TrEMBL record:
Residues 35-258 form the Acyltransferase domain. This is Acyltransferase 3 domain-containing protein. It comes from Anopheles culicifacies. PANTHER family: ACYLTRANSFERASE 3 DOMAIN-CONTAINING PROTEIN-RELATED, O-ACYLTRANSFERASE. The keyword Metal-binding does not apply. Pfam families: Acyl_transf_3. Keywords: Membrane, Transmembrane, Transmembrane helix.
Length: 321
């Protein structure tokens, strides 16, 4: 993807804003590729990113190194397990709170128009709170603790299905996560005075509680709790979909640039426009998929397209949309 953005992207479209869309990406990928290769692009070259979405890979890689080191220490020195986890937990709570308070941040990341103008390159909260490893350690730590708990409970023949306390905690985890997500509304609706201790506490708790709640959820699923949810999550279709989503993650900004980078007039974005655009794409997809086998059967012997059939199909698609 770096090679593609650094070479062919600029040649794929044109328009009044295309150079700003593609030239910046080409320049940054040619000059700052090293940050992506070393997985440090969540700290370096943040304002001149190549493949901006891959900050997540850098953060995840760094968290993996920290987590692996932590587990290696606890495996070599089992008595250090509880002290190390306690120190890590305190740090995971304290760091987001301190960063939020010192920088007068909101409790959640708010996408403001002035920040989106440059795709968050210069947004302080994005740079100092959203993408750094030290502010995202809490959720990764929650996953490590969940894995350790699962290992120990499984060794102790823990029966989660019959344990009332665990069942209450498990069934409360998903609603609590939804409430936590919706609670961010207050920061969009009101402008609170900052810095504020309660905002710093909220930011720290929200950053860490999200991972803890889903840790409980997945431990329960691993022990057989969940019924339909467990059956759905264990469906084999998620194996190929998991690989596809990673490909989409790497490619989606390239597709967005090529699709929208050649606009020649301002676009007014409203709920109705989004609905109409979504319906158009859905209709085109539902017409295209059934049409492919039909077109295959209608091909001439020399495997050339039947021009009249194609014209009729695309005319019908256009009218249907």
């Amino acid at each position: 993807m770096m090679l593609l953005d650094a070479s062919w992207l600029i040649r794929l479209q044109d328009g009044p804003i295309w150079k700003r869309v593609a030239e910046t990406e080409r320049t940054y990928c040619r000059s700052n590729w090293w940050a992506n290769v070393l997985y440090v692009n969540n700290y370096f070259t943040v304002s001149e990113p190549c493949l901006q979405q891959t900050w997540y890979l850098a953060t995840d890689f760094q968290l993996f190194i920290v987590g692996l080191s932590l587990l290696a220490l606890t495996w070599r020195y089992p008595k250090l397990l509880k002290p190390l986890l306690a120190v890590a937990l305190v740090g995971a709570l304290a760091v987001p709170a301190i960063v939020t308070y010192v920088n007068r941040f909101e409790g959640v990341v708010i996408l403001r128009p002035e920040a989106l103008k440059y795709v968050l390159w210069y947004d302080a909260m994005y740079r100092q709170m959203y993408i750094p490893t030290h502010t995202n350690f809490g959720s990764y730590l929650a996953g490590l603790i969940a894995g350790l708990m699962y290992h120990r409970l499984k060794s102790a023949n823990f029966d989660a299905v019959r344990h009332r306390g665990f069942l209450v905690l498990w069934y409360a985890s998903l609603p609590a996560a939804i409430v936590l997500l919706l609670s961010a509304y207050i920061f969009y609706a009101y402008d609170f005075e900052k810095p504020a201790i309660w905002i710093a506490v909220y930011a720290a708790v929200a950053k860490n509680l999200w991972g803890a709640l889903f840790g409980v959820l997945f431990v329960g699923v691993a022990f057989g709790v969940g019924g339909f949810l467990r059956a759905a999550l264990n469906n084999s279709i998620f194996r190929p979909l998991g690989k596809v989503t990673y490909c989409v993650f790497l490619c989606h900004l390239f597709v967005i640039r090529v699709t929208l980078g050649n606009v020649r007039q301002p676009i007014y974005v409203s709920d109705m426009r989004i609905k109409i655009s979504t319906k158009k794409k859905f209709n085109l997809f539902t017409m295209d998929v059934p049409a492919k086998p039909i077109l295959s059967e209608q091909k001439p012997k020399k495997h050339r397209w039947n021009r009249e059939l194609l014209q009729d199909i695309f005319l019908n698609v256009h009218l249907y949309i």
